[in-house]
Design goal:
Radius of gyration: 19 Å
Strand order of the largest sheet: 7-8-10-11-12-9
Number of domains: 2
Shape: globular
Structural class: alpha/beta
CATH superfamily of the largest domain: NIF3 (NGG1p interacting factor 3)-like
Distance between the termini: 36 Å
Helix content: 25-40%
CATH class of the largest domain: Alpha Beta
Length: 261
């Protein structure tokens, strides 16, 4: 058992740099740090993609004192209207305070971190080397040493994400240059220009909009939508690995609350 302070001191000084924290404050209204501070001592940490009631109930049943998320508790303007808390948020807060849970979210951090971020880990697992930034620094560009067939990359994505891939086959079939932006990186005109300027042949993300298939085909590039949740399990799990290396006495568990979206 260690103190909660010791755990977060490690995360905020050894894992996440001041530069990353500064950028998160500028670019992201979602949680990037501790949201609610609970018990002083910790021996069990629950990891998850998104904070929701099902996750919290599972974490409490297991005996966790700390819950670390990619998508933390929804406390910004996207979730609260006219200072009113909806029933969902009230239920989550009730179980958090009743059980003195510590809640922390790392949204921007765990998308863009150059080693343990979702984007970096996706590129690494697909066998591509990062060579630049993308999507207003939320994503990365990467390249394969040798071109790979689009069909092979699709199979690799299905295996990696454990999720069906919605494919828009709008460009060439041999792929060397890819862009990765986990979550809901639906393209706008600025990003389409970036794709063309950087000669990106395949955009990999979690979601897609109704208009994107036509835009991808008309601008001659490929688009893989692999699931918002499915593309964002990697960073939070890697955080667990880092914590386990530093504090082997802690019990750390990733709690799956699968989401098809």
């Amino acid at each position: 058992m260690i103190t909660t302070h010791k755990l977060f001191d490690y995360l905020h000084t050894q894992i996440f740099s001041p530069e990353l924290r500064n950028k998160a404050q500028q670019l992201d209204s979602n949680a990037n740090g501790i949201q609610i501070l609970g018990q002083e001592k910790v021996d069990k940490i629950a990891l998850g993609v998104s904070c929701n009631l099902e996750f919290l109930e599972k974490a409490v049943s297991w005996g966790a004192q700390i819950c670390l998320f990619h998508h933390g508790l929804g406390l910004n303007e996207k979730y609260i209207y006219n200072s009113c808390l909806d029933l969902s948020l009230q239920k989550q807060l009730k179980i958090i305070f009743e059980n003195e849970l510590t809640i922390a979210g790392y949204h921007y951090y765990l998308d863009v971190h150059p080693q343990i971020g979702n984007n970096a880990l996706i590129a690494k697992n697909l066998g591509a080397k990062i060579n630049g930034k993308y999507f207003d620094d939320w994503g990365i560009t990467a390249a394969f040493d040798k071109p790979k067939m689009l069909e092979e990359i699709a199979k690799d994505c299905t295996k990696l994400f454990k999720h069906d891939v919605f494919m828009v086959l709008g460009g060439q079939k041999e792929i060397q240059n890819i862009a990765v932006c986990s979550g809901a990186a639906i393209l706008k005109a600025k990003q389409i220009k970036e794709i063309l300027d950087k000669k990106i042949e395949l955009h990999i993300t979690g979601e897609i909009s109704e208009r994107m298939p036509a835009l991808a085909r008309e601008n001659v590039f490929n688009y893989f939508a692999c699931g918002h949740y499915a593309t964002e399990v990697f960073g939070i799990q890697e955080i667990g690995e880092k914590i386990n290396e530093q504090f082997p006495e802690l019990d750390i568990r990733f709690i799956e609350v699968w989401n098809e979206i």
